[in-house]
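Second attempt. The first submission of DUF1476 family protein had a stray character pasted in from the spreadsheet, which I only caught after the job came back as garbage. Lesson logged: always re-copy from the clean sequence file. Corrected sequence (103 aa) follows.
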Amino acid sequence: MSHSEPIPEAASVGDAAERKAASGRNRAIALWAAARMDLNPQSTELYAQAVENFHADRPTEEDVIRKIYGDLIASNIQVRESEVRTRAAEFLAQAREAGKNGN
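This time the job returned cleanly.
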């Protein structure tokens, strides 16, 4: 599982806005992965909570990406690690933008 460029680590910044953005990213990528795994609404919410709890135990973005990627592969979903990384970056950018707009 190699990648060409690391994604900046939001949680290490220590900034409240970045922590909030990282939390938003984690929830969004969990919901995206749940949709890919075709989970029902209740399972989707449980999965999102599990990813959020996982992030509390292992606070790096890399750990979250590995978890999501591993879960998708374990569910026989055809996905590249680079797609998970791209989605994580997109969701982080969206969460940062939402934070700037007060959402």
